[in-house]
Amino acid sequence: MTKKETRLKEMNQALKALIEPEGDWLANLANSSALLFEMLDGLNWAGYYIWKKDQLVLGPFQGKTACVRIDEDKGVCGTAYSQRKIMLVDDVHEFPGHIACDPNSRSEIVLPVIVGGEVIAVLDLDSPVKARFDELDRKYLKEFVEILVDETNFLPLMEKF
């Protein structure tokens, strides 16, 4: 196991220990974004956009100020939401319709947060390093989101579905 994989595995174990005793969705999104920002090198933003009234709306995050609202199918986050799939982008400047909240961002990975068959949010990670994210990140961040969903009460967010 590589050093990077060991670190990602430790991050997921830390997430489970951190949120297991706490079911509140807001607290868990806040703490999990802080954990990502602390444990992953080369990030300039880590956080969530929550689906509200036909838009993704800024949720808990770590990093520079961010865009507040993103429409479905717009940018990497909106595309991950509408296509219900993980988007791994090596160079955001080459992504059609990229939304430049931070002009220093070069690469991005966005993961849909799916609860009860509905995408309720997306997890967004940005880096100023081109091609920062790879298949190992995809694997462990997918597991990270699965842990979050398993350990968190998202029912208050589900009322709109």
Automatic annotation (TrEMBL):
One of its GO terms (molecular function) is L-methionine-(R)-S-oxide reductase activity. PROSITE patterns: UPF0067. One of its GO terms (cellular component) is cytosol. Gene3D superfamilies: 3.30.450.40. Residues 39-146 form the GAF domain. InterPro entries: FRMsr_CS, GAF, GAF-like_dom_sf, Phosphatase_reg/MetRdx. Belongs to the free Met sulfoxide reductase family. This is GAF domain-containing protein. It comes from Halanaerobium kushneri. The lineage of its organism: Bacteria, Bacillati, Bacillota, Clostridia, Halanaerobiales.
